[in-house]
Design goal:
The chain is α/β, with parallel strands linked by helices and 495 residues long. The protein has 21 helices and 13 strands.
Length: 495
């Protein structure tokens, strides 16, 4: 059957990660060993390996049996999926249990899966690498809260720094509470010993782990946030602290009334909120950012060559989408060059987004014409785009909406305009309308924009179709050019 990564397996083809945690055992199969890979398969089983650790110091036999059955299923699946590299790792429950080695031996003997038991330091480092894989500029402290432990890691300049592992995962705190241990005292005492957290007020706290993401979903629902994508969801620390104080005091009946959180997460929610509440008070960050990338993505990122690690994850993801979905040869560079004269004073962040929009500007061609704008708009809001902050998603969604329609959109579009801010929304719309014009002139084919020229004169777009390029002139071309001019004349929609 499958085995852990030996360094000799092929770099091409699917890559798998099995994450054996204190709560669940999960298999994620990614498309390949590439920057910003897409998950082809993602399944978890709630095995609760860590639920008895606090009481007995060992993995319960029934939990071990369930986890081993799950690993058997995963071994069969990864073989059928032709996974070239499979890395199986175990965290706090197996690490801390006295019969953890027996579990590891059984996984190898029964299913051919070589399980690597991560130290707390390695677990934290890999989780932080996962955060950096999604946001290379991340700075502050990464907090990865699993069922059995909390890992705290410094990140700055694309590197990880000091780290600490604390035995205060929600599953372990809950078990301790049944034994009469005061959860608040346990968390407070554990965090008091982390001296390097002092003096970090105003930094950003990057949150990883299913229990913390559940808190993020609750915050989104309570604030009626318009974009329900948890990755890169940025929250003022004071607002999050208020929510944690509320959740930490909820009983079972009140927990059952919470919507949007999986039922299996609800019992751990007060303990996760308690832990995050203490961390927010100790660290005093300005903002907290919820991260979808963590340990598993860190494992993939660690295996990448250095050159691949240096790629912009957003642009890498957009190139992949363009290669999969474009009608003709992708000509994003041609589009970028053609649009350059329209944006002579463009900031680097906007140029990056324009490049992404050029790559994605033909993604809806298979959709019925009446729904292309809606499809592109929604796709950008929800697609698994690493390296995209919420403002980036909003910008791209508005740009591609304009690329497929000249209209400003309805209430849903208006909510995203409000989220982004009107100046940036105007810029996104201008880019989208310029892309609409480019695709209309060229039919989406590469090599036809060279003779046509687009530029600015007195702040307004000017289009020239000299010589043979004049054959590309049509009423629809001129109508779309006029729409672009109106977007620059100070009376643009969103303005």
């Amino acid at each position: 059957m499958a085995s852990s990564d030996s360094g000799m397996a092929a770099d091409r083809g699917p890559v798998g990660v099995i994450d054996i945690g204190s709560n669940s055992v999960r298999l994620v199969v990614y498309e390949g060993l590439v920057r910003a890979p897409v998950a082809l398969f993602n399944e978890k089983a709630q095995c609760g390996l860590g639920h008895a650790i606090e009481e007995t110091g060992a993995l319960a036999e029934a939990d071990m049996a369930q986890a081993l059955r799950t690993l058997g299923r995963f071994a069969v699946l990864t073989k059928a999926m032709q996974v070239g590299r499979l890395r199986a790792v175990a965290t706090a429950a197996v690490r801390d249990a006295r019969n953890g080695p027996a579990f590891v031996d059984a996984a190898a003997a029964r299913h051919g899966i070589d399980v690597e038991v991560l130290s707390g330091a390695d677990e934290g480092r890999l989780s932080a690498l996962g955060v950096l894989a999604g946001n290379a500029s991340a700075k502050g402290v990464v907090a990865d809260l699993g069922g059995g432990s909390l890992e705290l890691v410094e990140v700055a300049g694309g590197q990880t720094g000091r780290s600490t592992t604390l035995p205060i995962g929600p599953l372990r705190i809950g078990s301790g509470a049944k034994l009469g241990h005061d959860p608040r005292a346990v968390v407070d005492q554990a965090m008091a010993g982390v001296s390097w957290l002092a003096g970090r007020a105003g930094q950003t706290l990057h949150l990883v782990g299913g229990a913390l993401r559940a808190i993020g979903r609750v915050h989104m629902a309570r604030t009626d946030y318009p974009l329900r994508v948890l990755d890169a969801y940025k929250v003022p620390a004071e607002s999050l602290l208020t929510l944690c104080e509320l959740l930490a005091g909820l009983g079972r009946k009140s927990l059952r009334r919470i919507e949007g959180v999986p039922a299996e997460r609800l019992p751990a929610l007060p303990f996760a909120a308690l832990t995050l509440m203490h961390l927010l008070r100790r660290l005093q960050p300005r903002h907290a950012v919820f991260c979808a990338h963590g340990l598993r993505e860190g494992l993939i990122f660690e295996m990448l060559p250095q050159a691949a690690r240096a790629e912009d994850p957003l642009l890498a993801a957009c190139r992949r989408e363009a290669a999969i979905g474009a009608r003709f040869a992708v000509h994003a560079e041609e589009l970028m060059a053609w649009l350059d004269p329209l944006f002579p004073e463009e900031e680097s962040a906007h140029r990056r987004l324009r490049q992404a929009a050029c790559l994605l500007s033909d993604i809806a061609w298979r959709v019925h014409p009446d729904y292309r704008a809606e499809h592109a708009f929604v796709e950008m809001l929800r697609a698994p785009l690493a390296g995209a902050e919420h403002a980036d998603r909003a910008w791209l969604s508005l740009a591609l909406h304009a690329r497929y329609t000249g209209g400003a959109g309805g209430e849903t579009v208006a909510a995203i305009v409000e989220l982004l801010g009107r100046p940036d929304a105007v810029q996104a719309r201008r880019v989208g309308l310029a892309l609409r014009l480019a695709h209309t002139i060229s039919g989406g084919a590469a090599g036809l924009l060279g003779e046509a020229t687009l530029g600015l004169r007195d702040g307004l777009p000017r289009l020239a179709l000299p010589g043979e390029a004049g054959l590309l002139r049509a009423d629809v071309v001129m109508r779309r050019f006029e729409s672009l001019v109106r977007a620059f004349d100070g009376k643009a929609q969103y303005g």
